[in-house]
Design goal:
single chain, 215 residues, alpha+beta, Protein Transport Mog1p, Chain A, 5 helices, 7 strands, globular
Length: 215
């Protein structure tokens, strides 16, 4: 069973749930410069040379290249799921829907770095909808993302051929309207599927995307 963390937020915090997110530009972390190697002096004389020790292999930073990023949002879903979404909460990619697919700081930093990705949303600017981003990542980003999600209170477990992390919150808006919001993340091989939703949780949504993209 998925380890889902549920939290009840206050009415004051509920206003943030229903507000559209206009933008976010997290500052990327700086990359330290590699240290220069220092060579030992070569001794002179007729002594028999000693074979150098083997050079250790570099740390592997590549993941299996199993995700081929599609060009259209329609192609991240099966035909059945696409039809269901068009019936439940159209349209696909309304320009007024600006919500991010995650509010996690590590996730936002990865997306701000500009990796290859495709963002898809469902619904109109309202109190019901979702946004998904499918992103190509490397091993370092995948590890940082898993750690960041766990430290933010997500429940994570093995699933869908990789790692699945979820969090969900229920609350009441300033107008006394109950709401449900949350995020689901799937990290598998060189791919990351991030989905944020408000009052709209299609059954089997993330599972369908993984099945369609990975097979």
């Amino acid at each position: 069973m998925m380890n889902i963390r549920r939290a009840v937020v206050t009415a004051a915090g509920a206003a943030m749930v229903l507000a559209a997110i206009s933008g976010c530009v997290p500052e990327p972390g700086s990359t330290p410069s590699p240290s220069a190697s220092i060579s030992s002096p070569t001794p002179s004389g007729a002594a028999t040379p000693v074979s150098p020790a083997p050079t250790p292999s570099p740390i592997e930073t590549m993941l299996p290249d199993t995700l081929q990023l599609p060009e259209r949002c329609e192609d991240i879903y099966s035909a059945g799921m696409l039809e269901s979404l068009n019936q439940q909460n159209p349209p696909l990619n309304d320009p007024g829907v600006t919500m991010y697919s995650t509010e996690n700081a590590v996730g936002l930093e990865i997306l701000a770095a500009g990796p290859a990705s495709i963002r898809c949303s469902w619904g109109t600017p309202s109190e019901s909808g979702l946004a998904t981003t499918v992103t190509v990542i490397d091993a370092t980003q995948a590890a940082a993302l898993r750690t960041g999600l766990l430290e933010s209170g997500f429940g994570c477990e093995d699933g869908l051929g990789g790692t699945v992390c979820r969090i969900e919150q229920r609350g009441v808006s300033l107008d006394d309207v109950p709401y449900l919001r949350g995020e689901t993340h799937v990290v598998r091989d060189n791919g990351w599927v991030a989905t944020a939703y408000i009052n709209f949780t299609p059954e089997g949504y993330s599972e369908d995307i993984v099945q369609t993209l990975w097979g």
